[in-house]
Request: fold
Amino acid sequence: MTDHNHRQTTAAITLLAFACGVAVGNVYFPQAIGPLVAAGLGVSPDSAATVVTATQFGYAAGIFLLVPLGDRMRPRRLLVTLLTLTGLGLLAASTAQTLLPLAAASTLVGAATVIAPLAGPLAAGLVPAERSGLVSGTLLSGCLAGMLLSRAVGGALGDWLGWRAPYVLAAALSLTVAALLARLLPASPPAAAASYPALLAAPLRLLRTEPELRRSCLYQATVFAGFCAVWTAVALLLTGPAYGMSAKAAGLLALVNAATMLCTPVAGRLVDRRGPDRVNLVCFLVVGVSAPVLAFGGLGGVPGLTALVAGTLLLDVGMQSGMVANQVRIYGIDAQARSRLNTAYMTCAYLGGTVGSWLGAHAYGRFGWPGVCLLVAALTAVALTRHLLLRARPRPAPASSKRAGWSPSSQPGRAR
Reply:
């Protein structure tokens, strides 16, 4: 690769990481302005929470319905179209006078802002296979930055100018990124000529036929479930008798995630050098250690808060780094079906997160904070046991992996 091409590729990946951050931020900033929406539209806070639910529902629907199109449509055209629709949806949301049109516009925004699941396969195709881990880590860092900054900026801007202002800013950012992608992203042909119904059916078929995809989905679903269980219950812990803090304390604690932006590129390099299996093993151990550390968070006071900071940091680093490893593994299954593979993977991950949130709330209600920590340990043990059993016996590589030029058995750390 010439220096000029290398610079072009680096610039494209940086732009995609920025696009991921802007898109993911559209899903999370409504969480920070829920009370402002309630006051502005004259509805209850519970009713205003419908906006957040609608955005998340739209995002889940977009993963299933739109991400497979990444294997059929030209990537640049698809990303630009979706970001333009996102910007228009955000502008429509900013003008809503009642809750119903705001929820409808939020559903559209959620469905159209699925840039990150589309950018991952596209970026992986721009670099050699030995750099795919670093690229996945870079994009994930962009997502994390968007998640954190959107909450902070959205809340501050909403307090200053009202709840509509964050929607206007998000719309401007989305439309700006659409224009940048249209001008700077390299053009590439579509990878598949399959019909849309076939593309929708493909993730289910791939789950049935590709064992590497199934285990990556299991790994991420279980660990992400534990992650969501903790972040669902920690707000209840901080506002409960052990701490007596306000609900804003959970948002401040979430800033610990900022350290993960530095860790995911490192995890990507380790995946490139050592293979995804070894990184998965380390991540399971890190997440497993986070459970007893988090348990001390129930003590309250400075010691308990210190334990929560350390435990959530371990949990976040382990979960996000494991996600890098899992994505590198699935991208190596079939280079021509990366978007469909990512659809199956992300859908399973978000289903795991949804179940984890539900389990976390119920575990806290019945067993308190120790119950949540035990849940994290149990979920991690499921993934770790599956991983260790797999490493204990040799296994032939799937045919599709060989066609794509990547064989799980060729990775360091894989039992032969």
About this structure: The two ends are 33 Å apart (CA to CA). The mean pLDDT is 82.
